[in-house]
Amino acid sequence: MYEKYAQSLSNILYYKYGDLLNPADKVQDAFIKLWENCAKVTPETAKSYLYKTANNMMLNEVKHQKVVLKYQQIKPKDYTNESPEFVLRKKEFLKRYEAVLSNLKHEERTAFLLSKIDGKTHKEIAEIMGVTKKVTEHRIYAAFNKLKDQLIELRKK
């Protein structure tokens, strides 16, 4: 069960919440909770139990981080080996890219990232998201078209 669901669950948490909250740790904790409650959880509901538990753990961590960030200043590193112009252009592009990604519908963003980052097939994404393959294809292409429309760097020259 771990080999079947761990990577997918970890990736979904990463896409939803980012890397700062250690999604891989939450996946491990979710499997531990499943093990502790294996007498109560049927095999048919194990997958949904894992996803729900891991998501709730991430939400709790988000709440905790909000409290921590109130009292802590994170100092960015103040040096780089890249030219200032490159750093500026990279930051500007990443801001615009993240803004466009955040403006996508949740379903489009998740399908797009599972496809392009994880290399999952449309069929695998459809199974993960609980929709048909055609819906998955539509979401991925819609997300990509929105990215191309709003980011000139992604357009063909």
Topology:
Layout: H1 2-17, H2 23-36, H3 46-70, H4 84-103, H5 106-116, H6 122-129, H7 133-150
Describe this structure in words.
This protein is mainly alpha-helical and 157 residues long. It has helices at 2-17, 23-36, 46-70, 84-103, 106-116, 122-129, 133-150. Helix 2 crosses helix 3, helix 4 packs across helix 7 (133-150) and helix 5 crosses helix 7 (133-150). The model has no long low-confidence stretch (mean pLDDT 86).
Q: State the oligomer.
A: single chain
What is the count of helical runs? 7
Poorly predicted spans = none
Radius of gyration from the alpha-carbon trace, in angstroms: 19 Å
Work out the number of β strands: 0
Based on helices, strands and strand pairing, what is the structural class? mainly alpha
**Bulk shape:** flat
Q: What is the N-to-C order of secondary-structure elements (H for helix, E for strand)?
A: HHHHHHH
Major pleated sheet:
none
Helical content class = over 70%
- Beta content comes to under 5%
Mean pLDDT, as a whole number? 86
N-C termini distance: 46 Å
